[in-house]
Amino acid sequence: MNLARYVISLFVILSLNFAIPRAMPGDTMTNLLGEDVILDDTLVQEIRREMGLDLPLREQYLMYWKDIMHLNLGYSYHFHSPVLPLVLERMKWTLLISAPPLIVGAVLGTLLGALAGWRESMRSRLQTLIFLIIYSTPPYFLALMSLYIFGFQLGWVPMKGFYTTGSAGNIIHHIILPVVLMSLFSASRNYMIMRGSVIQERQMLYVLYARAKGLYDSQILFRHVFRNAALPIITLVALDFGFIFSGALFIEMVFSMRGMGNLIYSALLYRDYPVLQGSFLVITLMVITANVVADVIYGILDPRVRGR
Q: What is the CATH number of domain 84-306?
């Protein structure tokens, strides 16, 4: 049943990947050539034919599925490059700045949230306030403020790009601030959810029973409560993992980084259908893969969901 659900989801999402870009207002040729360019109608029709834009939508849709089956993502109108190498090139940079925050944010936010939800204190309340402020702040605003302070005013980090020389130290110097910011965003979200989940779990009867057996607080929290309270975090991390290639859009724009987020933004501006379809295909596969992994982990942590 789960397999059928994922297959249907994949079919529907990939069909939407084809339909949504074409439903956007504006003409691809106008965005590609510019409004000031005047071309002969014959030449315009020839270009549209080369791009396959003169075909009926039904035929374009069938060609779209045929290309997917052959792992052919097409050719970019705007970037003048095959889509697959272009997406893979941008993907590695976005993965570089998104994967560490995903891991750090999950570990840090989950542990701190569990401790804050288990026992309230002045320190945990202050900690919650800080994470709540970060959680509520728009990413682009915090990124702009951080870049202004640490890049422009203090000069501690470069203002833009992934690297200048290409050495490991130089790359780390360029991405350290974006990685820290994204780690804080990820940790704040995991912290708030884990804290609320632990607060709910500590009121359950099995916690009272564990206390009656004489277990220490740390044993109750990490042996019993943590396992049940972490279930919502698995879903959140799975979704984060699926969207890491698109979620860095604001960070990449503020720091002028040429990653997947910036690629999708440029493709939207120029109505570059093949790039949009290729990028969304990658995100779709990541989301579905992440959900499959989440289902497996759910079954391991909570036997009640097995066989559903």
A: 1.10.3720.10
